[in-house]
Design a protein that fits this description.
Elements: H1 2-27, E1 31-32, E2 46-47, H2 56-66, E3 67-69, E4 74-83, E5 89-96, E6 102-108, E7 117-118, E8 122-124
Parallel strand pairs: 1-7, 2-6
Antiparallel strand pairs: 3-4, 3-8, 4-5, 5-6
């Protein structure tokens, strides 16, 4: 019985770890968008093709935690999440780490895209700007 429980725990931890590694690998390939408006409007959302990835909300949280504004000299945290009706898009209100500034970012989680991009004027790293 102990061996069976150990095997179940081992398999569950492997699955959890492999999903996390898949997300990290996907996020590590992000490039800066040349479009000044990228991610800041419903018409030009950040495209994250995550049909094959697990836990859509988690990948957006990880994405936001990696953003760092050069202008504001701050990282970000998610303040609020809104689903845009009749679409696959989400609006996230994000706040700077010091709580002084907020921004709205728009995401499309099902749109096919040629690689992951992040908004112009931001840095995107392995760790948040915190």
């Amino acid at each position: 019985m102990k061996v069976k429980n150990f095997n179940i725990i081992f398999i569950c931890s492997f699955l959890f770890t492999s999903c996390t590694i898949s997300n990290i690998h996907y996020l590590s390939k992000a490039k800066q968008s040349s479009n000044e408006n990228y991610g800041f409007s419903k018409e030009n959302p950040i495209s994250i093709n995550i049909k094959r990835l697990e836990n859509k909300e988690k990948i957006v949280e990880e994405y936001v935690s990696r953003l760092y504004s050069l202008k504001l000299k701050s990282g970000f945290q998610i303040l609020k999440r809104n689903v845009i009706s009749n679409s696959n898009e989400l609006e996230y209100v994000i706040v700077t780490d010091d709580g002084r500034d907020t921004l709205k970012l728009y995401f499309n989680l099902d749109k096919e895209s040629k690689g992951l991009k992040y908004p112009n004027g931001f840095m995107f790293g392995q760790l948040s700007g915190k």
